[in-house]
Design brief:
Pfam families: ABC_tran (PF00005). The chain is α/β, with parallel strands linked by helices. Helices cover 34% and strands 24% of the residues. It folds into two domains: 3-231, Rossmann fold (3-Layer(aba) Sandwich), CATH 3.40.50.300; 247-306, no CATH class. It has ten helices and 14 strands. The strands form three sheets. The protein has a six-stranded mixed sheet, sandwiched between helices. It has a four-stranded antiparallel sheet with strand order 2-1-4-5, with helices on one face. The longest helix is centred in the middle third of the chain and has 18 residues, at 170-187.
Length: 307
Amino acid sequence: MHLQIKQAKIGYNKPLISNADTGLDLGEVCLLIGNNGVGKTTLIKSILRQVPLLKGNIFINHKNIKEFSAKEIAEQVAVVFSNSVVSQNYTVEDLISLGKYIYYPFYFELKKEDRDEVAHIIEALDLVQYKNTPLKNLSDGNLQKTFIGRAITQNAPIIILDEPTTHLDEKNKIIILKTLRSLAKEYRKIILFSSHDWRLAKEFADKIWYVKEENLYAGMVEDILLQHEELTRATLFEINPDYIPPHIIAPEVYKEMLFSLLQKNFRKDLSYLTFEWNDKQWTLSGLGNIYQCESFEEIIILLKTIH
């Protein structure tokens, strides 16, 4: 394995993650998930040697990170944090080009092949029209894509991204995730990215690292999803603890939308109800009569009227 975590205890004064023992090979995409505050960012900073381990070791290409200099870490790991800061007067091309300067003194001119690579990445990320735009004039989404472009130009074997899709719309989210997966497969990179959306794993990730209750559960996407029921329910985070869902018979996307709708609007046990999606309408049973609704709005009106 190119990146290995061995019996690591990760945290500050007290551990956030205990006995983490896992690793990733070149060519793999891994999604790091878990609730806020469980230690996802601290784990990333531990790999970067910004936060010392409380116990255990981390190895990159069989070398302990404790033996790496700051420059060697930068050559091995490119990182994009969700709160990255850089001069707002830089242009998109300036920032993406910065990834190359870990190999040269800053006053050097980039070689032609470096400039060509930067131009290729700008095109791949759909940023050509913003090439000369100052960062201060970019949308949050395009700014995030530009930071990711800088990480790609660094040409490190490991790319780590902390919540890289937070500010992106669906189109740009897909562009980023497809680009990252292509990098992993075609150029043998390890891509580790954190997100609150576990559903991204099913389309774009090979492995999951799931942080829960001081444990790091790691493995193939499908194995980890099936081992943790909360990851296959309609929502990862229980917004309404008093809500008990009804029985829902529907395609997954409709099931998820109805689940979300009901838990936002009702603080009660709805387990005696059955909703079935069929022929472009919902059939509701369990109230003594059979009701049919053609929209989610009708469902809410009906339930609030009956109750």
